[in-house]
Write a structure and sequence with these properties.
Layout lengths: L1 E10 L2 E12 L4 E5 L4 H16 L8 E7 L11 H11 L11 E3 L2 E2 L5 E2 L4 H9 L6 E5 L3 H4 L6 E5 L2 H8 L6 E2 L24 H13 L3 E4 L6 H6 L10 H13 L15 E2 L7 H5 E2 L4 E2 L1 H4 L4 E5 L6 H6 L1 H6 L1 E6 L2 E6 L3 E6 L17 H8 L4 H6 L2 E4 L5 H5 L7 H18 L13 H7 L4 H13 L4 H17 L7 H9 L3 H6 L2
Parallel strand pairs: 3-4, 5-8, 8-9, 11-18, 11-19, 12-15, 15-18
Antiparallel strand pairs: 1-2, 2-4, 6-7, 9-10, 13-14, 16-17
Helix pairs in contact: 1-2, 6-16, 6-19, 18-20, 19-20
The structure holds adenosine-5'-triphosphate (ATP), magnesium ion and zinc ion (ZN).
């Protein structure tokens, strides 16, 4: 006999409906999963077998074929269990259901038949909302709050396979998922404040510019100057996330399986600080079952790479494409998937192995050592760091002073104002920030007067700048003008933006 149930698959951060067709024939006992079912999914066989038996049903000792359609998309994850188990029960006539047409099931089965939390429920609910059908979505009870974020999809929560069966057969009801309001999720995390950082005014200013336009920053300097301290304070000057940003970021965490059952919302700007020894898959994304990496988990927030030069060379090079495209494409056999990756990269490093090159203390490194050390940041990667800032050692008097240094609240005020300006400027565009402008947008929104044009041309020729660096300088200049509430990019705005590129010469091209 043949039976069909519905579920969805995850591709990148999108979900697509999938039909689970189960056919049971007489023949040698066999359980086959077809339709580009990946190895990990094949573990479903064992879970479904045990769950059926432990829920008081029979696992048919016949020839079972489970086909997942459409066949051309890879199926991965454990949430197919529930739809497969129900298909087997229907096809073997062990249960009767009047109606299964618009019912979508997602859930991983434990061996005892209870349902476990699964990744991807938010994108699945959003996809069902878009189908226009009168769909109902049956999710594990542990995913209930996440499903509740999408009010338009009618969802029901179940604790076990048996509860779902009782509901299908009409003998019991399932708990309807109640609507969750984004506003009701509060977060009490308080980011550390810039007021605690003494001196380092120019580094603070650069981080303010970066926060305003979501640009990338490279902090370079001797040990103990406060680079790590500064970077960790970046989120404190960024605006609160908009509703749209919250959902966009939460979707990524959902797919990554990183949402908390009780608090399934990323409402605070991400600040991700992976360790320098982290693998390429964990930073860029991918893996056997593809997962978003740190660059995607930092969506709409900050990716902090401390001790930048000590990251794996392959990881550093793999950053180049996402830094340019604001998304990452992961190629795999027979398929690719794409994750968003729009973040501000804050990187920090020492200028040499001993740490003191270019400072007031003596550097004990040889020129080849220094070259090798800084050379780990390749030219094209350095090009993508919009603002290069020196963080010198703080002098004793600065540390001892009681005079207060600028607080996060004060730095943030201007950031908010400049975001307003950007929102208005790009109101009719898909993107919202200066760093996201494409070359044509740069031409249109970053016009220079004659004197500025001449200044930039001169630097371009003299420093043998790349076209990319040229565009990036203009975008930063645009942000600096916005922070100054100026409609035009004036020469002082451009000069400041260019000055953030001057460290190339001191450390790299000497
Ligand atoms: N500008 C500063 N104002 C106040 N305290 C500072 C400052 N710079 C450094 N410190 C103190 O020194 C500690 C070390 O600073 P931090 O770790 O940020 O330095 P770093 O530049 O990252 O050094 P490294 O190159 O060794 O990683 C801080 O925790 C803080 O206590
Ligand atoms: Mg540090
Ligand atoms: Zn040195």
């Amino acid at each position: 006999m043949l039976a069909t149930t519905n579920t969805l698959l995850i591709n990148g951060i999108e979900a697509v409906p999938v039909k689970v067709e189960v056919d049971i024939q007489n023949g040698l006992p066999n359980f086959e999963l077809i339709g580009l079912a990946q190895a990990a999914l094949k573990e479903a066989r064992e879970r479904v077998k045990a769950a059926l038996k432990n829920s008081g049903y029979e696992f048919p000792n016949r020839k079972i074929i489970v086909n997942l359609a459409p066949a051309d998309l890879k199926k991965e994850g454990s949430h197919f269990d529930l739809a497969i188990a129900l298909g087997i029960l229907l096809a073997s006539g062990q249960i009767n259901a009047v109606y299964t047409e618009n019912l979508f099931f997602a859930g991983e089965l434990s061996l005892d038949g209870s349902l476990r939390q699964v990744p991807g429920i938010l994108p699945m609910s959003l996809a069902l909302m878009g189908t226009g059908k009168d769909a109902r979505f049956i999710v594990p009870a542990a995913n209930c709050r996440e499903a509740g974020l999408v009010h338009e999809t009618r969802s029901l929560a179940a604790g076990s396979l048996q509860e779902v069966i009782a509901w299908l057969e009409g003998s019991e009801l399932l708990e309807p998922v109640s609507d969750e309001r984004i506003e009701d999720f509060t977060d009490s995390d308080v980011a550390p404040d810039f007021a605690e950082v003494k001196g380092q005014e120019s580094a603070k200013r650069a981080l303010q510019v970066a926060a305003a336009g979501l640009h990338n920053v490279l902090l370079i300097g001797p040990p103990g100057g406060g680079k790590t301290m500064l970077a960790r304070r970046m989120p404190s000057i960024m605006p609160d996330m908009t509703r749209e940003e919250i959902l966009e970021t939460t979707r990524i965490y959902s797919v990554a399986g990183l949402l908390n059952a009780e608090h399934p919302l990323i409402s605070v700007r991400p600040f991700r600080a992976p360790h320098k020894n982290a693998s390429s898959a964990s930073i860029i994304g991918g893996g056997r079952i593809p997962r978003p990496g740190e660059i995607s988990l930092a969506q709409n927030g900050v990716l902090f790479l401390d001790e930048f030069t000590e990251f794996n060379r392959d990881v550093l090079e793999a950053l180049r494409q996402p830094l340019e495209d604001k998304l990452v494409t992961i190629a795999r056999s027979q398929a690719t998937c794409t994750y968003p990756a729009n973040f501000s990269l804050v990187a920090s490093c020492n200028p040499c192995p001993c740490g003191f090159y270019g400072s007031d203390l003596e550097c004990t490194c040889t020129p080849p050592q220094i070259q090798k050390y800084l050379g780990r940041i390749s030219g094209p990667l350095l090009d993508r760091m919009d603002l290069h800032v020196e963080v010198p050692r703080v002098i004793f008097e600065q540390l001892r002073t009681n005079s207060s240094s600028e607080s996060s609240a004060s730095l943030r005020e201007k950031v908010l104002q400049s975001r307003e300006i950007q929102l208005n400027r790009f109101a009719r565009h898909k993107f919202k920030l200066n760093s996201q402008m494409r070359p044509a947008d740069v031409k249109r929104f970053c016009r220079l007067d004659e004197a500025s044009e001449a200044l930039l041309k001169n630097a371009f020729d003299r420093l043998k700048m790349s076209a990319r660096a040229y565009d990036r300088i203009l975008k930063v200049a645009r942000t600096i003008a916005d922070l100054d509430n100026s409609l035009d990019i004036k020469i002082q705005h451009l000069a400041e933006a260019m000055q953030y590129r001057s460290l190339d010469r001191k450390y790299w091209h000497n």
